[in-house]
């Protein structure tokens, strides 16, 4: 069951709530409000309307939940998530993940094998992961071959630039023609 607890239900509805309801009105999924009622809409009333509009559809994770979760992952208190999984998180799932990660944070226990990522110097050598990605982009034809002497001396910054260009070429191919 999707339930939301509002601390101050009698306060005016938030801008985000009004935008969501306004979209539903424009799409004819909810009747129009008269001006007085719209101006006087409370958080509690807005939650009831939004809950009815969603039906059984799960509530998506909020921006704040995603930010907190990303921070906990970055600091090693939670395993990383695929981008698709992260984008599709529900509020309830994010809440549970955050709770477990915060418990790890309280004990100082990080994920096994976690090493804090440190900022590399601009002239640091390309990482193994970058070289693997470059190899794949070359094989797939998104970037040109790299001379062996250039490959051996490639810096992290140079590899990043080439990977970015390769990703852009990859996205252009994947994008359907309009």
Structural account:
It is a single chain. The chain is mainly α. It has three domains: 15-54; 63-107; 128-174, no CATH class. Helices cover 57% and strands 0% of the residues. The protein is built from nine helices and no strands. Helix 1 (15-26) packs across helix 3 (43-54) and helix 4 runs parallel beside helix 6.
What is this structure's SSE topology?
Blueprint: H1 15-26, H2 35-40, H3 43-54, H4 63-74, H5 83-87, H6 91-107, H7 128-139, H8 148-153, H9 156-174
Estimate percent helicity: 55-70%
Instruction: Specify Rg, calculated over alpha carbons.
Output: 24 Å
Which stretches are low in confidence, meaning pLDDT under 50 for 5 or more residues running?
A: none
Largest sheet composition = none
Order of helices and strands: HHHHHHHHH
Per the principal axes of the C-alpha atoms, what is the gross shape? elongated
- Average pLDDT, to the nearest integer? 87
So how many helices?
9
Fill in the keyword field for this structure:
single chain, 178 residues, mainly alpha, 3 domains, 9 helices
Summarize the structure.
By secondary structure, this protein is mainly alpha-helical. It is 57% helix and 0% strand. The chain has helices at 15-26, 35-40, 43-54, 63-74, 83-87, 91-107, 128-139, 148-153, 156-174.
């Amino acid at each position: 069951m999707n339930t939301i607890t509002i601390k101050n239900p009698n306060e005016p509805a938030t801008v985000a709530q009004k935008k969501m309801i306004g979209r539903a009105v424009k799409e004819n999924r909810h009747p129009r409000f008269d001006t007085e009622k719209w101006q006087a809409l409370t958080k509690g009333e807005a939650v009831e309307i939004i809950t009815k509009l969603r039906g059984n559809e799960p509530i998506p994770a909020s921006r704040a939940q995603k930010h907190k979760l990303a921070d906990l992952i970055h600091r090693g208190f939670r395993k990383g998530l695929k981008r698709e999984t992260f984008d599709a998180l529900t509020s309830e799932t994010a809440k549970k993940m955050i709770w477990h990660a915060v418990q790890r944070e309280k004990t100082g226990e990080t994920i096994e094998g976690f090493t804090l990522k440190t900022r590399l110097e601009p002239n640091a050598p390309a990482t193994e992961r970058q070289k693997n990605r470059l190899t794949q982009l070359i094989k797939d034809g998104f970037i040109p071959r790299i001379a062996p002497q250039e490959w051996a001396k490639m810096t992290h910054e140079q590899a990043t630039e080439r990977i970015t260009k390769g990703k852009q070429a990859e996205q252009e191919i994947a994008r359907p023609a309009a």
